[in-house]
Amino acid sequence: MLSPINVSLESLNLMTLTPMLIPFVGALLILVVDLFKSNLHRSLYVVLSILFLVLDFGALLDSAGIFAKDGITLGVFNVMLIDGLAILSQFIIVATSMLFIPLALTNKRFHEFSYPEFFALFLFMVGGFQFMVASDNLILIFVGLETASLALYTLIAMHNRDKSFEAAIKYFTMGALAAGFYSFGSMVLYALTGSVEINQIATILSANGYADIGFVLVGVTFLLASFAFKLSIVPFHTWTPDVYEGSSAAMAGYMSIVPKIAAFVVAMRLFEFLIHANVVWLEVVLYTFVVVTMTAANVWALVQSDVKRMLAYSSISHAGFVMAAILIGTTQSNSALFLYWILFSFTNLGSFSMLWISRQKELPGYQKTDHSFDKFSGMIKTSPMAAIIMAIFMLSLAGLPPFALFWGKIYMISAAVTGGYTVLALIMALNSAIAGYYYIKLIVYMFMKDPIEDNINNDGSLYVANATTALKSIIGFAIIGTIFAFLAVDPLLEFVTSFVYNSGY
Amino acid sequence: MLDHILSILIFFPALAGVMGFMIDKNSIRSYGVAVAAVEFGLSLWLWFAFDNSVSGMQFMEHMALIPSFGINYILGVDGISLFIIILAAFFTMIGIASLTDTKDVKNMIITLLFLQMTMIGVFAALDAIVFYVFWELSLVPMLYIIGAWGGPLRIYASVKFFLYTFTGSLVMLVGMLFMAYFFYQATGVWSFAILDWYRLILPESFQLWLFAAFFVGFAIKVPMFPFHTWLPYAHGQAPTIGSVILAAILLKMGTYAFIRFSLPLFPDASVYFMYPIAIISIIMIIYTAMVAYAQKDVKQVVAYSSVSHMGVIILGTFALNVEGISGSVFLMIAHGVVSGALFLLVGVIYDRRHTKMMDQFGGLAHVMPKYATIFGIMMMASVGMPLTINFVGEFLSLLGFYQQSHMLTLLAGMAIVVGAIYMLAAYKKMFFGEVTKEENRNLPDVNKRELIALVPLVLITVWLGIYPKPVLGPINNSVESVVQLMHNKATSEEAKMRIPNVSGVVISKTSAKEAH
To answer: Pick from A217, A243, A215: which is nearest to A230 by CA?
Structure first.
C-alpha cells in the first residue's frame, strides 16, 4: 500500500515560482476579460500586458535581492533553480517584452493586434521562457521551451500575410525537429547517468571519469544541434531570414533577442561543464560553429537587398559572436555575454522598430519588399531626424564607439584575449570589419544617394507612416540607451559580473 | 576654467553642432565661422597657458568612466599634441570660412563641427579606449563628407576609406586589449591609461606582436605603402574641404599615434622594426613621388605628394632620437599647413573651371597673378625650400635618421629632388607658357574670401620657416622625455645603443638648435 507522500509546503519554496506565474495569470486574465466583453480596443490589452510585466519585473527584483543575500535558491522539488543566470536572463526577457509590447499601438491597423489572444499568447510565451532559464532540469527546460515556442509560432502566423504563414510553418517544422533532437539528447544523458538534472549529470559524469565518452558525445551532439537551431547557428540557421521576413519587423526584432538569450542560458548550463572537463571534441565543434556562424552570416548579409533580411543575417552573426562566450567559458566571458545581450537588445529592438514605423500597408511599384534599401534612398533630405537615429543604430550594431554595442564587443573580445583565444579574438575583430560594410551600406543609401525617381514627391511621411507616440517613445528610449550606454556600462558590468560569479559560472 | 579647457575644446564644437540644427540655413555659415573662431581662440589660449618648460602632460583631466574595466576619461597635452590641436582648430576655422557654395551647407557645417570634436579628442586623449573612441568616430563625419559632397565615384571612395581604416583599427583594438591584459597580469588592475602603460616593461617577444597589431591600425591611417591605396581615391573624390581636413589633420593621427603609443610602449620592437619600416618609408617616398609625376590631375599630384611626405615623417619618427622625432612632429605641422594650403588652392581653380586636369590649364600666371604667387610659395614649401616651414621638419627628420643609417638617409634625401621634379613640372604645366584654352582667359583672380584662408597660411609657412623656435621648443622638450623613457625601458643591448640617453640633454639640444 502506498504511503501518502509527506511534503511540507515550506520546503517547496513556492516563492521561486512567482515571477513565472505572474505572466500566466496575466494571460488568463486577458482571456477572461475577453470572455466577458469582446471587441475591446487593443490599447487595453497592451496596458494590461505592461502592467503584468511590471509586476513580473518587481518580482524579479525581489528574487534578485534574495539571491544577493542568500545565494542560489532551489524550489519545487529542486526543479526550480534561481541563480544569477536565471535572474539576469529573466530581466532581459521581461524588459525587452515591456519594450516590445507598446509596438502594437501602431498608426495603421494590423490584424493580429485586434485579437486578445495575441496578448495572452505573448504572456504565455514570456512565462515559458522564464521557466526555461530558471531550471536545471532537462524536462522542465523542455516544457518551458515548448510552451514558449508554440506560442511564438502562433504569434508569427497571426501577422496574416502569405509570407507569415510560410514563416510560421517553417519555424514550426524546424522547431519540432529541434525538439526531437533535444529530447533524444536528453534521453541519452539520462540513460548514461540516471538523472535529468544538469548538475547531477555533471557530477556523475566526472565521478566516473567520462568513461562512456562516446555516448556522452552522441547525447551532446543532439543537444547541440537542437540549440543550434534555436540560436540560428550556421548551418542550422536556414529558417531565420525567412521567418524574420515573414513576421512583422517588431516581432522579428523581438525574436532576435528573447528566445536567443533563453537558449544561451541553457547552453551555458549544459555545455560549460563539458568544456571545463576538457572535452576537446566539443571545443573544436563550438570553435567551428562560432567562426563559421560569424563569418558566413556576415558574408550573406553583404548581398541582401532588403534591410530586414540584412538585419536577420546580422543577428545570426551577432549570435555567433556571443556564442564565443560559451566556448571561452570564463566568468569574464559569461558576464560579457549578458552585457552584450543587454546592450544588443536596446540597439536591435530600436533598429527593428525603425523599420516597423516605416511599414507601409501597400507597396509602391518600385519597391519589391517591405524594407528594400531603395526605400531609404536620400532619407536625410526628407526626414533627417529619423535618418540620423537609424544611422546611430547601424553604427552601434557595427560596433563603432561610443555607442552601446561597442562596449559589449570590447568586453567580449577582451574575454577572448584573457581566455587565451588569441586567434579567435582577431577573427572576432575582423568580422566586425566585414559587418561594417553592410551597416554602412544602409547609411550610404540614407545619406549619400538621392531619392529614387518614383519616390520624388516623397515628403518623408513614408518613413513615419506607422508612427504613434507609443512607438516614438520606444525608439527614443532605445536611442538614448544606445548613445549614453557608456554611462551605464560600469554599474551594469559590476552587477552582471557579481551575479554570474556568484552562480558559479 | 583652465582645469577643464581640454574638455571644453573637445565638446564645445559638438555642442555647437547640435545647436546648429536650430539655426536657419542662410545664417549657418556665419555661425560655423563664429564657433570655429571661438574654438581657435580657446586653442590659442591653451598655447598661451601652456608651460613650455614642462616636458610631461599638462591640463590633465581625470574622470572615471568604467573603472571596473580600467577605462577612464583621461585627457592631457604635451608639446607633441599641443600644436596639432591648434592646427586642427585653425584648419576647421579657415575651412569653414573658405567654404564655397555647397549644397546642404547646413549639414556640411554641422558635420565639420562634429569632425572637429573627434580630431581634438584623438590628440588630447590619454586613455587608449577614449583615444580609440575618437579615432573611430572621426571616420563617420569624413565618410559623410566624402560620400555626400564628393565627385562621381564618391560612394566607392568613402566606403573604401571607411572600411580600410575600420579594419586596421579593429586589429589595433585587439592589440590594446592585449596590452591592458598584460598590464592586468603584471599589476592586478585593469587599466587603459597610456601613462600607466608607459610604466610597463614587456618582454621583447610580446612587444613584437603588439607592435605589429598597433602598426596595422596606424599604418593604414598614415597611410603607409602598401596600405596607401585608399588615399588617392579619398582625395580624388572628396570636396575641397574634405581633402584639406583629411590631409592636414586626419593623416597626422597615424603618425602621432606612432609617437604616442608604438615608440614608448615597445622600444625594443621599434628598434627591431626600424630598418624594415625605414625601407617601407623610402619606397613610399620615392615610389609615390614617381606616381605623382605621372598624374594628370593636379589634385592627385598633391595627394601623392602627401603620401611621399608622410614617408619622411615616418622615417624621422623611426630615427628614434630627439632630432628625428622632433623633426617628424614639426613636419606633421608643416605638412598640415602646406598640403592643406595646396588642397585649398586646387579647390580655388576647381571652383572656377570645374576641372582639375592640368592639360586644361596653362599660362594661368598671366591671368591670375596673385593665385600663381601663392601657389608658387606653397609649392616651394612643399618641395622643402630653405626658409619655408617644410624644410625645418624634413631636414631634422633626415638629420635624425642620418645617425642610424647614412645610406638610407641618402636615398630618402632623393625625395627632395624627386619632389622638386613633380612639383615644378606640375607648376610649369599649369602656370607657365601661353594661355592655350579660351576659357582660361578671363578667370577672376583669388577673391577676398579665399585670401582670408590663404594669406595666414602663407604667413605661417614663412614665419615658422625662418623662426621655428616657438613651436620647436616645446616639441623638443616633450620629445626628449619620450626618448629618455624609451632609453630607460629598452631591454635589448641594441635598443639601448640605438636609442640615445638624453640625460646628456645639452648635446642633443644644441644639435637641434644648430639645425635651423
So the answer is: A243
Task: Identify which of A400, A410, A449 has the shortest CB distance to residue B177.
Answer: A410
Q: Give residue A179's identity as a one-letter amino acid code.
A: A
A380 touches chain B (CB under 8 A): yes
Closest approach of B180 to chain A, Cα-based (Å) = 9
Whole-Å CA distances, A52 to A29, A42, A128, A133, B308: 10, 15, 15, 19, 67
- pLDDT, residue B509, reads 41
Report CB contact under 8 Å: A429, B173: yes
Q: Which of A294, A400, A441, A499 to mutate to test the interface with B (most CBs of B within 10 A)?
A: A400
Give yes or no for a contact between A416 and A324, defined as CB atoms under 8 angstroms apart.
yes
Which helix (H) or strand (E) element contains residue B180? helix B154-187
CB spacing of A410 vs B129 below 8 angstroms: yes
Q: What would the pLDDT profile of B207-226 be if each residue is shown by its tens digit?
A: 999 999 999 999 999 888 88
For residue B349, what pLDDT is reported? 87
Cell numbers placing A157: 502566423
The H or E element that residue B338 is part of is helix B322-353
Average pLDDT, chain A: 89
Check CB contact under 8 Å for A436 and B162. Answer: yes
Q: Which of B69, B133, B163 sits opposite A401 (nearest CB)?
A: B133
**What mean pLDDT is reported for chain B?**
88
Interchain pair A436, B133: CB under 8 A:
no
Cα–Cα nearest to A107, from A309, A361, A483: A361
Dump the DSSP string for B118-132: HHHHHHHB-BHHHHH
Beta carbons within 8 Å of B35's beta carbon, 6+ residues apart: B12, B13, B16, B20, B113
Residue A55 has pLDDT above 50, yes or no: yes
Q: Which of A238, A258, A279, A250 is CA-nearest to residue A103?
A: A250
pLDDT beyond 80 at B14? yes
* Residue B23 three-state SS: coil
Q: What cell does B172 get?
A: 589595433
Which residues 6+ apart lie within 8 Å of B171 measured at CB?
A426, A429, A430, B213, B216, B217
Residue ranges of the alpha helices (H) in A158-257?
Answer: 162-193, 198-207, 213-231, 239-246, 249-255
Distance from CA of B102 to the nearest CA of A (A): 15
Return the pLDDT at A183: 93
Do the Cβ atoms of A471 and A110 come closer than 8 Å? no
Backbone angles phi, psi at B62, to 5 degrees: -145, 125
CA pair distance A23, A53, nearest whole angstrom: 7
Residue type, B388: T
Q: Confidence class of residue B513 from pLDDT cuts 50, 70 and 90?
A: very low
ipTM of the complex in this document: 0.91
Residues B103-113: tens digit of each pLDDT = 888 889 999 99
- The three-class DSSP label of residue B110 is helix
Q: Which residue of B has its CA nearest to A495?
A: B68
Question: Comparing C-alpha atoms, which of B379, B469, B493 is closest to residue B431?
Answer: B379
pTM: 0.93
DSSP letter string, B239-293: -HHHHHHIIIIIHHHHHHHIIIIIHHH-HHHHHHTHHHHHHHHHHHHHHHHHHHH
Across the interface, do B140 and A447 touch by the CB < 8 Å criterion?
no
Distances (CA, A) of A205 to A11, A139, A220: 28, 19, 13
Whether residue A144 has pLDDT greater than 90: yes
Residues 6+ apart with CB under 8 A from A320: A233, A234, A289, A290, A291, A292, A293, A294, A297
CA distance linking residue A172 with residue A167, whole number of Å: 8
Contact between chains at A490 and B159 (C-beta distance less than 8 A): no
In this predicted structure, the answer to whether residue A503 has a pLDDT above a threshold of 70 is: yes
